[in-house]
């Protein structure tokens, strides 16, 4: 009986490989640009027609090839970048698999013109559907030009899956943005349908190239990143939350010079921004990771865009920490002005340190009433906010909620009069106005209090700080849970204990709530548990997800609301606690907690400048 298993022909093998390597015109541009960069090119020119579906031409001034190499380049698994198994552990080039050129040639008409450095005559190779038709001498300066036309002419079914020319062109430009940013010393020129659309001269550094790619105005809103941990380092730029985008095209990440797509790294970047970004916005990020070859595997997929890390936890921590550090160091909370610094400003203090810098050590401990050390520049107010019982009576029949500031050090005498005379204004029982060095801060009281409660809850749940005081209920609340809620309750019960709840299981799915954190005076007690349980993430969330979910729910429901009147001392305490948090710029949902308005802006509006 004849064997039914046979070895596929080279042409069929190449067409199958093309199914993975060649998704569309942007895949061709990617492979050809990578070859140019690997060849040491300092100038790369890309010409497109019909969004790349009709023509892609990539020319470079790299090392070029001789006649033998020009033909061998179209053999499958032929490459100059690897020779031994050991080379896979330390790949330093963008390409290495030897699949790109034969795969692209098998589904297109291709023409290659190349000349090796130091030669006076080059070589031209023409292929149709992967078959070599002509090999001719050609005149060309050192370097290589590859021209690809009639993409998928022999696989019409695949051509039907191509997007519109505009969409394909946009994907190409997104791709070229990555390489242009990661290789600032290389000149890039792009022409589409006879029109020059991009011209990037060599840049001195990443910041200069980013300015050329996204515009100098946006580039000014990016912050430098630099962090090293052992054999791993990360450098680059992260954009301020104010320039976040609806699309993620300007989130560029590279490992050892190779642009990658990694859910792990993307999640770490989001974690670094925390709640500074709304869920539907994407940060502007340009990051380069340098990792020892033994810690990363780039031989995962034919497109070479996916990588595997040997220590995912360490990579996540490196990226998250670097992004968070950049945001905290370079975008500090505004300084509350001082009497000495700005005329008769009632909030002025010498020293000029930002509120929030000196106070972060106590942020997680409810220390809104912390002391003000002479010359520290940290403005602390002597009155606690509502989570410490200010402005609210105790539960009927119960003990008065203790104040968070009890027993803390007194404010120095030289600052007491300035603080006492300071004025805060509440607009429509929703916004708080505070004078600063440059003008005024407008604070959303609900969003600001959400941020304060969120960080305190998260630190308590994570064991970083003690929970605030609890308040015994005069009449314990009986809560009957659904089947799903009961299962979730078993999982989060230990975390609720850390927050200051006292909840005892009774029978079946019924629980008894005997005490609650003193921070929740206006949250209906019979709804607290259901609200927390209903907001939990679906699936099998980890401890980190549970902590985030509970902290966010607690902050949202327990915070003061728009329409709640605040006394002077309550507004003071709110401002102090907000700027003592780690990320005072937004609430847990991504909404801004405050906005600045400078004297210069006011002068401009009133025609004074």
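-> sequence recovered:
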């Amino acid at each position: 009986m004849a064997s039914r298993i046979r070895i596929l022909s080279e042409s069929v093998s190449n067409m199958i490989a093309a199914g993975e390597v060649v998704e569309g015109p942007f895949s061709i541009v990617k492979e050809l640009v990578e070859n140019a960069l690997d060849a040491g090119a300092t100038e790369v020119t890309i010409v497109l027609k019909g969004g790349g579906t009709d023509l892609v031409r990539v020319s470079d001034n790299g090392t070029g090839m001789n006649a033998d190499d020009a033909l061998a380049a179209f053999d499958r698994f032929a490459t100059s970048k690897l020779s031994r198994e050991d080379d896979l552990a330390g790949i330093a080039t963008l390409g290495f698999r030897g699949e790109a050129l034969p795969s692209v040639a098998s589904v297109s008409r291709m023409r290659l013109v190349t000349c090796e450095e130091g030669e006076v005559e080059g070589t031209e190779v023409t292929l149709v559907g992967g078959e070599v038709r002509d090999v001719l001498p050609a005149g060309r300066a050192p370097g290589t030009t590859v021209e690809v036309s009639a993409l998928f002419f022999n696989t019409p079914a695949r051509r039907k899956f191509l997007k519109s020319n505009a969409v394909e062109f946009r994907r190409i430009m997104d791709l070229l943005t990555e390489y242009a940013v990661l290789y600032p010393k290389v000149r890039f020129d792009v022409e589409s349908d006879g029109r020059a659309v991009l011209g990037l001269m060599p840049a001195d550094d990443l910041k200069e190239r980013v300015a050329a790619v996204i515009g100098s105005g946006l580039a000014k809103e990016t912050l430098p990143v630099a962090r090293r941990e052992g054999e791993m380092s990360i450098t680059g730029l992260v954009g301020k939350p104010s320039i976040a985008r609806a699309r993620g095209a300007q989130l560029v990440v590279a490992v050892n010079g190779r642009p990658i797509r990694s859910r792990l790294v993307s999640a770490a970047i989001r974690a670094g921004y925390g709640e500074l970004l709304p869920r539907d916005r994407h940060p502007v990020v340009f990051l380069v990771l340098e990792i020892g070859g033994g810690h990363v595997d780039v031989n995962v997929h034919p497109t070479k865009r996916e990588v595997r890390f040997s220590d995912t936890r360490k990579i996540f921590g490196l990226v998250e920490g670097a992004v968070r550090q950049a945001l905290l160091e370079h975008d500090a909370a505004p300084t509350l002005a001082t009497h000495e610094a700005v005329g008769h400003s009632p909030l002025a203090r010498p020293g000029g340190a930002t509120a929030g810098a000196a106070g972060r050590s106590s942020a997680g401990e409810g220390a809104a009433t912390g002391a003000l050390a002479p010359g520290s520049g940290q403005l602390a107010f002597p009155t606690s906010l509502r989570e410490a019982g200010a402005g609210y009576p105790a539960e009927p029949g119960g003990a008065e909620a203790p104040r968070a500031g009890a027993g803390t050090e007194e404010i120095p005498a030289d600052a007491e009069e300035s603080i006492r005379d300071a004025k805060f204004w509440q607009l429509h029982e929703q916004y708080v106005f505070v004078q600063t060095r440059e003008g005024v801060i407008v604070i959303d009281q609900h969003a600001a209090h959400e941020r304060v409660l969120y960080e305190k809850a998260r630190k308590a749940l994570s064991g970083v700080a003690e929970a605030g005081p609890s308040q015994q209920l005069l009449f314990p609340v009986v809560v009957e849970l659904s089947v799903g809620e009961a299962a979730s309750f078993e999982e989060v019960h230990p975390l609720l204990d850390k927050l200051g709840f006292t909840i005892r299981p009774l029978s079946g799915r019924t629980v008894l709530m005997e005490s609650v954190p003193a921070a929740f005076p206006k949250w209906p007690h019979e709804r607290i548990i259901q609200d927390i349980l209903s907001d939990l993430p679906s699936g099998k969330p980890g401890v980190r997800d549970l902590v985030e979910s509970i902290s966010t729910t607690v902050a949202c429901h327990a915070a003061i609301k728009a329409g709640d009147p605040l006394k002077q001392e309550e507004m003071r305490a709110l401002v102090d606690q907000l700027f003592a948090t780690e990320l005072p710029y937004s609430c847990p949902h991504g909404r801004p907690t405050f906005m600045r308005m400078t004297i210069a802006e006011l002068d401009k509006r009133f025609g004074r400048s």
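The chain is about 30% helix and 20% strand.
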